[in-house]
Design goal:
- This protein is 46% helix and 18% strand.
- It is an alpha+beta fold.
- It has two domains: 1-43; 51-199, Glutaredoxin, CATH 3.40.30.10.
- β4 (85-90), α2 (95-112) and β5 form a beta-alpha-beta unit.
- The relative contact order is 0.19.
Length: 200
């Protein structure tokens, strides 16, 4: 019996050094993951609304994407040069999109007071039929155009997988900013004001 107990004790002693070798590795992996998360958080900034996110499109000409507006006319993003363009990728069943909508209504109204200096706002529809979108806007307000694209051309061109996302494009047609998650009217107004000052 004592031989069995001695063997079990010896086996336990053999496992302990192995565990001691694994523990530093586990701690090291956790440390690397924590540093990575810290870097991601450091690179993302939030101003009471959507969080800015990096994209290979920022600082480059906006993708050539086309679609159809809700009135049936064609839309070509490259023809919007000369205006500040704000694209908001939208799904009427997305809860954050629904929560964000009143902020976009306020932003659109604020930009309208600036006349030709105001930004053009477009909702890029990622899901839903036009009658559903029309009903949503009628119930919740907002009179800016909605863009429908075949084969999700707009979301694919901008690399949008999850909504809401909002993009700002300058009058030269260059992408200036990508915001992920919900935005506020105050945030968007301040962003556009700052960009206009830099652009002059």
């Amino acid at each position: 019996m004592s031989d069995v107990l001695d063997a079990i004790a010896a086996a336990g002693d053999d496992e302990r050094p192995g565990r001691r070798r694994i523990a530093p590795l586990v701690v090291g992996v956790i440390a690397v993951v924590m540093v990575g998360l810290f870097v991601v958080l450091l690179n993302a900034s939030s101003d009471d609304g959507g969080t800015s996110a990096d994209s290979p499109l920022i600082g480059r000409p906006a993708p050539e994407a086309t679609g159809t507006l809700d009135d049936g006319t064609s839309f070509d993003l490259s023809r919007r040069k000369g205006s500040w363009v704000v694209l908001n990728f939208f799904d009427p069943t997305c809860v954050p999109c629904i929560r964000e909508h009143p902020e976009l209504v306020a932003f659109s109204e604020d930009q309208a007071t600036l006349g030709t200096d105001g930004a053009e706002l477009y909702s890029v529809i990622t899901r839903g039929e036009q009658d559903e979108i029309d009903a949503f806007f009628e119930e919740n307000g907002g009179d800016w155009p909605a863009i429908y694209s075949e084969a999700d051309e707009f979301p694919v061109a901008f690399g949008v997988a999850q909504v809401p996302e909002t993009w700002v494009i300058d009058p030269s047609g260059v992408v200036q900013l990508r915001l992920i998650s919900e935005v506020t009217a105050t945030q968007l107004n301040e962003i556009l004001r700052s960009f206009r000052e830099q652009y002059r």
